[in-house]
Design goal:
264 residues, alpha/beta, GMP Synthetase, Chain A, domain 3, Rossmann fold, 2 domains, 13 strands, 26% helix, globular, binds S-adenosylmethionine, transferase, tRNA processing
Length: 264
């Protein structure tokens, strides 16, 4: 049986399976097959729609197993407690988190926008000697974020704040060496907030974007135009396809180095 699903959780504490039930297939048969393959799965949830709203959660329907869908997920040596019915989380981005941490330098102060339950902040802080301010608007995600910081012993490095990036960024103006923007479908609405958060001399921004064949061109031009309107020059220094959703739809990351424009 060919079925596509994600497993979130761990062998020790149990996992949930999130499955796209193919049309014409019996959901119960699909669930039985997943439970047979993975005895540590405690709940099988079926995708009942796309990601929606500011919180980027999706409707999930329980088709087998326990109503209790809170799990502790493990990736690259750290743990993340979460309930996928209530918060955004994608286990598919584990590699992206490691690759992003590679780019960070010790000693930096980092602004992690759209922090969710904290996977990016925790992945970076585990490997680098940095301080990270993480902002998240979904109060349930913030609760998990706070707990995950404690579980991983990173309270001295990560500082979670509940709130809206557009209100909080102006209050933290000019402080950061690096800004991370992991909201592919909406980060372009917060470019101004990223730019004003950087230190006066400039810094790095990791900009996530979602689009078709010309996504890279579009994203670069959006970002550079906004930077120029602030008298800043944004140089694109890296690019990665994070994941592909359809033959021509990708989630991408572009790395920018931003500095004040030299006035001739
Ligand atoms: C695509 S999810 C990424 C979450 C997390 N970085 C991860 O990878 O698991 C985007 C997150 O941004 C949060 N969010 C959306 N708009 C926001 C805003 N204006 N201010 C702060 N957080 C926001 C959502 O609640 C959601 O948790």
């Amino acid at each position: 049986m060919r079925i596509a699903y994600d497993l979130i959780g761990s062998r020790e504490t149990g996992a949930v399976a999130i499955v796209d039930v193919p049309e014409g297939m019996d959901p119960l048969k699909v669930a039985e097959e997943i439970l047979r393959r993975h005895p540590h799965v405690k709940s099988v949830l079926r995708k009942a729609g796309g990601r929606e709203g500011d919180y980027r959660t999706r409707p999930l329907e329980l088709i087998a197993g326990s109503q209790d869908t809170e799990v502790i997920h493990k990736e690259h040596g750290y743990k993340l407690k979460l309930d996928p019915k209530l918060v955004y989380f994608s286990p598919r981005e584990a590699t992206e988190r490691q690759l992003l941490s590679d780019l960070v330098e010790d000693g930096e102060l980092i602004f992690l926008m759209f922090a969710g339950v904290g996977p990016y902040a925790i992945a970076i802080a585990r490997r680098k000697s940095v301080q990270i301010v993480g902002v998240e608007i979904n109060s349930i995600a913030v609760r998990y974020f706070q707990e995950n910081i404690k579980i991983n012993g990173l309270s001295h490095k990560i500082f979670p704040i509940e709130g809206d990036v557009s209100y909080l960024a102006p209050a933290m103006r000019g402080r950061f060496d690096r800004v991370v923007m992991p909201l592919p479908l909406g980060a372009y609405r917060f470019i101004r907030e990223a730019l004003i958060s950087l230190k006066e001399g400039g810094g790095y921004v990791h900009f996530y974007y979602w689009g078709g064949e010309d996504a890279l061109k579009q994203a670069e031009s959006l970002f550079k135009r906004e930077a120029a309107s602030f008298g800043l020059e944004a140089k694109s220094i890296g690019f990665r396809v994070v994941s592909s959703y359809a033959p021509r739809v990708d989630k991408i990351r572009i790395d920018f180095f931003v500095k004040p424009m030299l006035v001739k």
